[in-house]
Please model this.
Amino acid sequence: MAGLLATLLVFNTPRVRADERDEKIKQLEKRLESFEEKTRLLEEKLDGLEGRANAKRKTQPTLSIGQSGFTMHSAENDFVLSLHGIFQLDSRTYAANTPSPRSGFAARMLEHPVRCAAPRGKSPAPAC
Model:
């Protein structure tokens, strides 16, 4: 009788472990599916936000500041205003016990071009 009980215990144990393993695999598959669904929803939300940001960016005027100066564009790029220039300032200081009237700053070069552009068929503002 003890041998029969031991035999049943030995042969039934793997079946119980296999059932537990199958149940664990099913639970993990369900978790994976829920994570995939959450990922899909987040990606859709991100795409929507990026689309709205791009649409908003296209409808706003821009101002850029760089090596070529200040440039302003209208929202539809119909009007452009560029400001750039060159300015050179020299300092003249003479060493003496009393201040020299010849000491000071001198503007050597001042150039300030302005470029305006308007859509075809329209003239730019009179100041341009």
